[in-house]
Amino acid sequence: MDGEHTALENGLLDNGLSGSLGSDFDDDFAPFIYEPDPTLPENRYLDRELSWLAFNQRVLELAEDPLLPVLERANFLAIFASNLDEFFMVRVAGLKRRIATGLAVPTNVGRAPQDVLADISLKAHELQVRHAKAYRELVLPALEAAGITVSSWDELDEADKVQMREVFSQQIFPVLMPLAVDPAHPFPYISGLSLNLSVRVRNSRTGKEQFARLKVPQMLPRFVRIDQREGLGQVRFLRLEDLIANHLGDLFPGMEILDHHVFRVTRNEDVEIDEDETENLIQALERELLRRRFGPPIRLEVTDDMDDVTLGLLVRELDVTEQEVYRLPAPLDLGGLFDLSRIDRPDLHYPNHVPTTAPQLMPSEPNAKPDIFAAVARQDILLHHPYESFATSVQAFVEQAAADPHVLAIKQTLYRTSGDSPIVEALIDAAEAGKQVLALVEIKARFDEQNNISWARKLEKAGVHVVYGLVGLKTHCKLALVIREEKGVLKHYSHIGTGNYNPKTSRIYEDLGLLTADDQVGKDLTRLFNELSGYAIEKKFKRLLVAPLHLRKGLLKRIDTEAANAAAGRPSGIRIKLNSIVDEAIIDALYRASQAGVPVELWVRGICGLVPGREGLSENIRVRSVLGRYLEHSRVFSFVNDSDPQVYIGSADMMHRNLDRRVEALVRLTAPEHLAELDRLFDLAFDERTAAWVLAEDGVWTRHHLDENGAPLTDLQTKLQQQATQRPRSARTGTRR
Questions:
Q1: 336 and 378 assigned to the same domain
Q2: Has 509 been labeled as part of a binding site?
């Protein structure tokens, strides 16, 4: 739950827009061949797709929670809708494409792909009906109680209607484009995710009935402000499609309006490129982006009052199956609630939180300018966003490097960042100042491809060396390396993070990052960047675990070590925090560790294919999920290792795509203070007094957020905000060991 939406403004991807939850989606059909462990039971995995839908159900449960501020609840409704849109555009589309072309569809639960699609359709329809009910029966009344009303046309008095007719004629009518369907006008192309009105009209002279399609303009506000009779603290809106539907006579003069309904189409928006067969990746990608608009329909949403004649026409012309039709209560596309969620009512939002500056980066004297390099040279610094400021740490690190005359080179990966990013501007400034600057831009970042192409070209024009990674792999790791001359010696300053170099998402995504001057880390990053930009093949790193060659092997080795330690009676334990876990090899290793007696704690935001708490298999494994104001995005891998802890942070989830088809990097933390801090983070997350969802053996997530007296349990994110604010300036030094 990264990119950019007019279509996907949800935080689902690392996009810097308004949402706070997401799925970080990708088509995860990998050619990974895993030999199943015959000692483990066959039915040991939870269904990946249903687990994702369960994640989105948890988002919906936040929207249903009366204890949350009502505009945040509206935002969660919008996030749920946008999350589901991308689930269909990418994951369901990928399943359908592979079935249609006869390609293998690996499923870790041993079921036929058609059965998987049927279960998806059933569960998704159930959730969308629940979603609509939450809007009508829970959030709308709560909004109205707070002075924010969404009215229907029939609820307006005559003065309101006069005003709305004026708004329609001056601001909406000129933009509309009704499209007739007849022998001279073929059925029009319906763009993906657009909201449309189907209109049946009758010619008053001939009596002939005809069909027309009217697209609701996406560039206009979804909720139109009504100004009449608004009192202090009161604001009213009318849905745009409702306003248009009640002025259809203006669009079809002389015709009798028989009926109208709202519908919406979701299309396959996956992009496929054979990188081995193309000479110019950017040109090939731009061609595919044009084709994306015309992907086949994979979901048709219609209002539940649509007549059979109109529905039959849409089904026939769009060539969709009955399973792909979703009859839902109006209104469709509750992603439009993003507009309402931005209303400036601080009392109806989460309390404002201003990130603090990491104590080690604070200047020693008031009003003095901080020196990032001096601070990092003294000790490793572990950053925790958004509790600690991205702007005064990572952004300041890159900006100071760009301006520092002693800096000779900057190397950085860029997966997703905002178009006006100060990070990009700093790299441009550095290149224009004559520094060597390398930017590894991942132009295949889903739904961000065009943005990345645009600012990659901007970087190239400024003299930055721009490369696009390795053929067949996405570069997903989050790395920055600065080479600085100090007293005739070259010194490495490094940043390795779990999140993108995006100042906007850094305010709503929870991430970790390490700033270090450790020479070994710097040498590791130098070798890795050489591999990514040239032809070097580096096989060994000292402080890093790197995919696709060594990450899975390295983690499996450490999991097996914990199992061996437990069997020998030595201290053992595994704690992992990530977005998703579906990789069979990793899951089976965790099962074997549990059978050996290793206590395993998994903190999973989204998809979990592992079954916890099953006797004889996973009774030592606990799985929790935390969702809330911020999107939990950091990845942590912690191993007790016979009381010599091995702890890593980085960019990788335990999915085939991350382990086999991406360049990912984890860095090992060494400062005892940092290891202790992450231990405290897990302690808080797994404390029974902390609110969370708990996964049971049957795959059902249960929310625990109230105590036996009905009082709210501790909110982890609020607690971390408080701790960051109260932390003394001298806290959290990171002495390297």
A1: no
A2: yes
